[in-house]
Amino acid sequence: MKQVTRAGVPVDVAGDFPAVGQASPPLTLTNIEMADVTLADYAGKRKVLNIIPSVDTPTCATSTRKFNELASSLDDTVVLVVSADLPYAAKRFCGAEGLDNVETLSTFRHPEFHRDWGVALCSGVMSGLCARAVVVLDEQDRVIHGELVEEIKQEPNYEAALKALG
Q: What pLDDT shows up at residue 72?
């Protein structure tokens, strides 16, 4: 079991975080229209998964805004913001913020995502949510970058994710 911290306090993280070079784990999540989607729905595109605990926290909101801004300049790439937030909450947040370059996806029907992708917070006050992470997939759904952010309250390394996209 891995650990990250939240305000310096250790938090256990279960599952195997995807390694660079491996095929991505399976993915089924729920979009804002309440429809389930898989990686096949984004076939032929590169994918940036901005995995967050909740859009209703300051750092998560910031990373969603930042990836929305960065996404406007990325060719053949979709930015997917993954959290346990209900699709209604994610839609409300993106609508209020004017964010239209990211797609929000929810784990609420598919909690297996947490362990399959190695981001299952399983201790502390945020147990049941996703750890903060960024995973970048190429067009064939191979992992080309991965970052499990060591401190939940810290933003991910945006530059490293963009560099992986070339």
A: 81
Listing DSSP states for 20-32 in one string gives TTSBPPP-EEE-T
Q: How many CA atoms lie within 13 A of 144 on its CB side?
A: 16
In three state form, how does the secondary structure of 127-139 look? CCCECCEEEEECC
Alpha carbon 46 to its chain centroid, in Å, reads 14
Site of tokens 């970048």? 136
CA distance 8 to 14: 18
State the pTM of this model.
0.96
Q: Please report where in the chains the tokens 């250790």 appear, as a residue.
A: 10
Residue 110 token pair:
């598919």
**Active-site option among 60, 94, 122, 130:** 60
The share of the chain scoring above pLDDT 70, in percent, equals 100
**152-165 confidence digits (pLDDT tens):** 999 999 999 999 99
Paired sense of beta strands 102-106 and 2-6, if any = unpaired
Tell me: the pLDDT tens digits for 25-66? Answer: 999 999 999 999 999 999 999 999 999 999 999 999 999 999
Catalytic status, residue 60: yes
The residue whose two tokens read 């901005």 is 50
- How far is Cα 139 from Cα 143, in angstroms, rounded to an integer? 10
